[in-house]
Amino acid sequence: MDMMQSIEENETLLRVGIAFQSMEARHRVSEALERNYER
Known about the structure:
By secondary structure, the protein is mostly helical. It has one domain. It contains 2 helices and no strands.
């Protein structure tokens, strides 16, 4: 979960090469990356 929080806090990250097993982590990281992409 620490990795997920770090990704959510990073406002410039556009891609992640990590596969999350937790559905919640996948969803939250996906939303964070989409938010960053739209900026």
